[in-house]
Structure prediction request, 362 residues.
Amino acid sequence: MTALISLSGINKTYASYHALRDVSLDIGAGEFFSLLGPSGCGKTTLLRTIAGFETPETGHLRIDGRDMLRVPANKRPTNMVFQSYAIFPHLSVAENVGFGLRRSGDNRAEKAARIDEALGMVGLSGYGDRAAHALSGGQRQRVALARALILKPKVLLLDEPLSALDKKMREQMQSELRRLQRQVGITFVLVTHDQEEALIMSDRIAVMFEGAIAQVDTPQGIYRAPRSQQVAAFIGMMNFLPGTVRSDGGQLLADIAGLGTIPLPGDLAATARLGAAQFGLRPESLSIMFGSDPLPTGLFSDGTVAERAYYGDMTYYDIDLPGGASPVTCSMKNLLSRPVLEPGSAVRVAWEPGALSLFQDV
Prediction:
């Protein structure tokens, strides 16, 4: 991967508050990269540092090989789409989109052509004469994108641009943003607290907590192989089951509450330590066995449905397992041949040892 953005040892404080803690990160050219984390974790501060709106106390920042820490925001090869969109309500759509071209040196016809091109990119061809104040939320977001893209930045920075949209429009714009990024081929850096949004849109994700980066990986890597219990708990749903790792005749065994004793799978055994542990299992890695289902090759546990949540296409079951510290959650796709079980139903739950995650965080 060729790094377009390179950050090294970035620290930023506000009085006694440490907003960024020794952040080092490379973001590739043409990559859709997301900064993901809860509110207050430092992701927007990091985005604003890349943009030039914040100056760190220590560290280095390079964009396309050039040192940027002393370069003002308006001289950097970046543009930013803010959470509020910052649309000028008294201007037309075309005037909003072309606002940054005032000092470009282009003549009127050249500016009009660039505005039309930018509007076409975001699906707003023919909207140039419309009043900006009359647009819907989704259309305003597209105008903000067009205004940023018309200046042809090397990096487009997006500060939670979809958070003000309703669920249906947000899902539509997620797809549109991904399509747009592939079309224009420039680097997008997105700040979001929405785990699903980051998984859907990103090539890679940096998960942040308390000003530091906890893990950088692909969406699949973050979801399937979280490096800490904190990351696992933040990304999607995860069952955490207390247990112990012990050795028996040279073989590592896992005693897991509610699941019993199993040989520790090889990939987990390679890094496991003897002693207390937490084991993670995603809800989709557990399966309730119905009469017509083929028998799996994994392991079984018998339990009782404690509660259920029906979502139409899926049902989530909370299941009490003998010896379990708390119910485990199991997600099942609703097929026509598959009943929706009521609380109190006795069930047999199948699971694969290979789906386990092991956490022994220090």
Summary: The mean pLDDT is 90. The CA atoms of residues 207 and 271 lie 22 Å apart.
